[in-house]
Specification:
Keywords: Signal
Structural class: mainly alpha
Protein name: Lysozyme inhibitor LprI family protein
Order of helices and strands: HHHHH
GO cellular component, one term: extracellular region
Number of helices: 5
Length: 117
């Protein structure tokens, strides 16, 4: 249990470094919406996308089954909200900030304290 916590914490602390080396969590070559194109063209949005996607993947893999399904549904709804921003950088930034806080809260309050183990 302690080793899993260390791995999760290490993964979260490395997210910022990883985001500098990687592109958005989706293929910018295949970006179709104005929101996706804006994310690909804006470095801070690109980094926020990578960080959020990494945290989301950690959450989905660490939560028990019922929590996974709920979080996948929440992610789908969040994507719709994010995409409604179109090319508005401040709106997209706000959506990422809100979603990242939600995911960070899950990691802190549900995974690290209770865990699926």
């Amino acid at each position: 249990m302690k080793k899993l916590r260390i791995v999760l914490l290490s993964s979260l602390f490395c997210i910022n470094g990883l985001s500098l080396a990687h592109a958005a969590s989706f293929s910018c070559d295949k970006a179709k919406t104005s929101t996706e194109k804006t994310i690909c063209q804006n470095r801070s949005l690109n980094d926020a996308d990578v960080k959020m996607a990494t945290t989301y993947n950690i959450v989905v893999h660490a939560l028990p089954m019922g929590g996974r399904d709920a979080e996948k549904g929440a992610q789908y709804q969040w994507l719709k909200q994010r995409d409604s921003c179109r090319a508005n950088v401040s709106c997209i930034t706000q959506r990422y900030t809100e979603r990242q806080k939600h995911l960070d809260d899950i990691v802190q309050n549900r995974i690290l304290t209770q865990g699926p183990f």
